[in-house]
Design brief:
It comes from Podilymbus podiceps. It is found in: Mitochondrion. One of its GO terms (molecular function) is tRNA (guanosine(9)-N1)-methyltransferase activity. One of its GO terms (cellular component) is mitochondrion. This protein is 62% helix and 7% strand. The chain is α/β, with parallel strands linked by helices. Among the domains are: 183 residues, 3-Layer(aba) Sandwich (Alpha/beta knot), CATH 3.40.1280; 31 residues. A six-stranded parallel beta sheet has the order 3-2-1-5-4-6. A two-stranded antiparallel sheet has the order 7-8. Helix 1 packs antiparallel against helix 2 and helix 15 packs antiparallel against helix 16. The longest helix has 41 residues. The chain is elongated, with a radius of gyration of 42 Å.
């Protein structure tokens, strides 16, 4: 048995240890050689006889094959780790160079990146991870901002909690609510009607209907707080329609308590036709003054694509009078469509009803759409605008000069 152990040690020293030392595995093989020698000794004690001989060549082949398998596995694992490290360093260099590369990438994502068949697919995958990381950061930032705002409001509420709990403020709020409700109740009997046409559900998407209802809710709140509110009518509003569902979603239990008139009939069946005026931006007739004896109709439609002529065609089919706000007469229009939101229309109509001043009413038009109010007569502004359009079209300079002289001479004769 001693001779067998000596032979096993010689085999390990001569074949296995140099190979392990070459690949940096010498420390790991010492316990392996010890266990092999012990297992061999035990096996010889139990089964081998002293007369039997050991086939050292066969044993050497078995040891070499097993060792090569172990070494190949460890070498492949190390190569994979080194390839992942190299890919990670390359991505870090790309990120520092300004490319769209995520800051944090997991091993699974890195393996997926390395398995991409082409460079374009690798770039697309990196861009996908980069955008995903940006969206995640933005969502986290929004959540943090919301949390900060909530904490600030809680702190302010805690600071002013004592003042809010005073009986005077609670009494004042209740009195104001009762006063607003009393005004709206009076308008339902004596006030001027204002109609919202709810027949445009088929011309809008679900999102546009939701935006329309949101603007109508703002309009109703504005009308409720005014000094002389309108009597609001929701005409052509059918049960279980998109309008109705959105209204219930906004008002919930208060929908049945609103001081407005809701009907599924058309406004031509409720009011006489000679008193109805349909307000639409496509109308050729311009509204000059606010008539307190007329009943104005506002189309409950919000369209992102700006479908021109829809409300005008409906008014013509019903044989109604139409009118448009005099935006060109009082405003120097800058850019964008001349369609206004429903809450802006409500502010304008309430101001006209109370004051009759167009400048005060048109202050509710978004200031991004106009440069300012008109100070000159309209015909002079049209001439200057025509000259500007001629210059934009690129006509000859002489024709522009002649036109300018002609207009200027007429202006002098008129003076």
């Amino acid at each position: 048995m001693q001779s067998a152990n000596m032979l096993l040690k010689k085999i390990i020293r001569s074949s296995v240890l140099p190979f392990a030392a070459q690949h940096g595995m010498k420390k790991d093989l010492f316990p392996l050689s010890r266990t092999l020698s012990l297992s061999l000794c035990l096996k010889q004690d139990n089964s081998c006889k002293p007369s039997e001989k050991i086939d050292l060549d066969a044993w050497k082949k078995v040891m070499k094959s097993g060792l090569q398998e172990v070494v190949s596995e460890t070498v492949s694992d190390r190569k994979a780790l080194s390839a992942l490290a190299a890919a990670r360093e390359m991505l870090e260099m790309w990120r520092l160079a300004g490319r769209s590369v995520p800051e944090n990438i997991s091993e699974e994502q890195l393996k997926t990146f390395m398995e991409c068949p082409s460079k374009s697919s690798q770039k697309k995958y990196l861009k996908y991870l980069y955008l995903k990381e940006i969206y995640k950061k933005n969502d986290q930032k929004k959540m943090d901002e919301k949390r900060e705002r909530r904490l600030e409001t809680q702190e302010r509420a805690s600071e002013t909690d004592e003042s809010k709990k005073t009986s005077f403020i609670c009494l004042w709020a209740n009195c104001m609510d009762r006063a607003y409700s009393w005004r709206v109740a009076q308008s339902m009997i004596f006030g001027q009607p204002l109609v919202f046409d709810m027949s445009y559900e088929k011309d809008m998407s679900v999102r546009e209907v939701a935006n329309t209802v949101r603007q109508i809710v703002l309009s109703e709140g504005c009308n409720r707080r005014s000094v002389d509110p309108f009597h609001i009518h929701f005409c052509n509003l059918k049960d279980d329609s998109l309008y109705h569902k959105e209204f219930i979603k906004h008002y919930r239990q208060a929908w049945g308590k609103l001081l407005i008139t809701v009907t599924d009939q058309c406004y031509t069946e409720v009011f006489p036709k000679d008193k109805l005026i349909y307000l639409t931006a496509d109308s050729p007739k311009v509204m000059k003054t606010f008539d307190h004896d007329k009943i104005y109709i506002v189309g409950s439609m919000v369209d992102k694509s700006i479908k021109t002529g829809v409300s005008l065609a409906r008014a013509k089919r019903l044989g109604l009078e139409t009118a448009a706000l005099p935006l060109d007469k009082y405003l120097l229009w800058n850019a964008g469509a001349k369609n206004l939101t429903l809450d802006q229309m409500m502010h304008i109509l309430l101001t006209l009803k109370d004051t009759g001043d167009w400048k005060k009413a048109l202050e509710f038009v978004p200031k991004r759409k106009y440069c300012g109010f008109v100070n000159k007569p309209v015909h002079e502004l049209k001439k200057t605008l025509n000259l500007i359009n001629m210059l934009k079209l690129g006509k000859r300079q002489e024709e522009v000069r002649k036109q300018f002289v002609k207009n200027y001479s007429k202006k002098l004769t008129e003076k």
